[in-house]
Amino acid sequence: MKVLCPIDFSKTSVNACKWIATYLKQIPESEVHLLHCVNVRSRATIFLKLDDILIQRAEADIINLEKELIKVNKDLEIDSTVVVFDPKSYIPSFAEAHNFDLIVTGTKGLTALKDITVGSVTESVINKAKLPVLTIPNMDRYGKIEKIVLGVDDNPIEDEKALDSLINMCKITDAKLIMVHVRQKGDNYIEYDPGYDIYFKELNYGYKALEKDESVVETLTEYCDNENADVLCMIHKKKNWFKRLVHRSMTKEELFELETPLLVLPGGKS
Fold first, then answer.
1. Exposure check for the chain: N or C terminus, fewer CB within 10 A?
2. pLDDT tens digits for 103-131?
């Protein structure tokens, strides 16, 4: 398995690297690529020297991080790249160009610039990337994954391949998959949709319908908390997905305070 880990050396991003390094102990011949983007927009010659300093510091920090990851998983293959580029645009293009299977990042990182909001890089990566993105909360430590919750809606799954990462995770960990359909109050629903057997027939899975409370996110996260779910999975189908997903009473900052790892699967534009 080939995993890209964008890293800004915040506690959250370092924790995400250690989380995935532990998870990959179950998958032989796995590779993690650490990517750090020095995001300095030079407007004068003096800033060129600053770029060089930041690159040198990043390269030194990556060496130290690699040592920490080897302690976690001695069989893990680790590579790294340091570039001077905007991470919002560079990370998705780098991931696609190098055929990674998964991007793993923290829910939020450093906010050195005032115009960078909490979770903005992670949000941008999720919206632009054409491969699954797994976000890890700062306080989450990898443990045995026993229960995975997949949020579903009334629309059919368009691309079966989009589910590969989720199916593989279930098989690797032998976790139970629970599909949760969040619906409006008063809507008709069924407790089981046999159509999902096409995708999940080899897995241990169940189906649950819930009435939406304040927002889809809040309903799903509350369910995850009550059920002690280890991973929440959602399918990214629409442009400006975060804007449509997050209820006006729930800010992006609250979304990125999720205590459950979030796996986002690319699912097309519809």
1. C
2. 999 876 544 333 333 357 887 888 888 89
